[in-house]
User: Which sequence fits this backbone?
């Protein structure tokens, strides 16, 4: 059967994450519901590059599915968008070789996390940035980021609820932060990410900025492989799956 790959984007505010859950609105659920309509009641399973949690957004998530219909690859974008809600959109669609897999063929992913560092919140950004009102030493945060780059065991920065089997060794190709006014953007680009990894890293880096930890402490915290030594998990709504690249 033909295999279709789609690039999708969604506002995670009103979704209970990506993965299907009973009686809850999810990204996968909306996609499979639309595909079921197109396939006249036949259920179609959708596979993604990875799951996102409740409230997490995606600028460039990738999915694939198999179909017995002979619709041209580019036409799936129009067909699906006609049935999908306005907080979920198909950016691109194409037919791909049968050996393509949205999850297993990933080469690297990029996540971005946005922080509003101001004494006052911005109600218009409340679903897309983490309002952090404390003063920060931004130079210390920048320095701390450098200790995260490379291949490490990221057990310390993985949720205790993680169900990952095997090691927690991952490679970060980039860990940077940029500030413009009161807006801070964190960029993390890597071979793979653990459950809540980016949000725990951000929470820890903000503690460095507050002076609760020193930049060099990141090295010791990584080596300890102890979640208790890292900072709090930053809220979901500041996180975006920004880009997924394939082999």
Assistant:
């Amino acid at each position: 059967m033909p295999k279709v790959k789609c690039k999708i984007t969604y506002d995670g505010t009103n979704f209970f994450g990506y993965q299907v859950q009973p009686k809850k609105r999810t990204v996968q659920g909306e996609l499979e519901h639309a595909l079921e309509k197109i396939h006249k009641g036949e259920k179609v399973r959708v596979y993604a590059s990875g799951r996102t949690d409740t409230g997490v957004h995606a600028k460039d998530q990738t999915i694939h599915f198999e179909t017995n219909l002979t619709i041209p690859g580019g036409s799936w974008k129009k067909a699906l968008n006609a049935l999908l809600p306005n907080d979920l959109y198909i950016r691109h669609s194409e037919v791909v070789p049968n050996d393509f897999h949205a999850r297993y063929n990933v080469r690297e992913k990029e996540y971005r996390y946005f922080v509003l560092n101001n004494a006052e919140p911005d109600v218009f950004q409340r679903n897309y940035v983490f309002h952090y009102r404390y003063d920060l030493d931004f130079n210390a945060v920048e320095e701390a980021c450098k200790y995260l780059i490379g291949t490490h065991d990221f057990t310390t920065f993985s949720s205790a609820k993680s169900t990952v089997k095997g090691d927690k060794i991952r490679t970060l190709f980039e860990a940077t932060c940029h500030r413009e006014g009161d807006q801070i953007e964190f960029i993390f680009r890597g071979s793979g990410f653990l459950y809540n990894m980016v949000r725990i890293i951000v929470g820890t880096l903000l503690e460095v900025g507050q002076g609760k930890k020193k930049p060099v402490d990141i090295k010791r915290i990584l080596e300890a492989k102890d979640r208790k030594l890292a900072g709090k998990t930053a809220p979901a709504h500041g996180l975006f799956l920004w880009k997924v690249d394939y082999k």
In short: The chain is about 20% helix and 30% strand. The beta strands are 3-10, 47-48, 57-66, 88-96, 106-116, 130-131, 150-153, 169-180, 183-190, 239-246. Residues 3-96 form a domain with the Alpha-Beta Plaits fold (CATH 3.30.70.580). The mean pLDDT is 96.
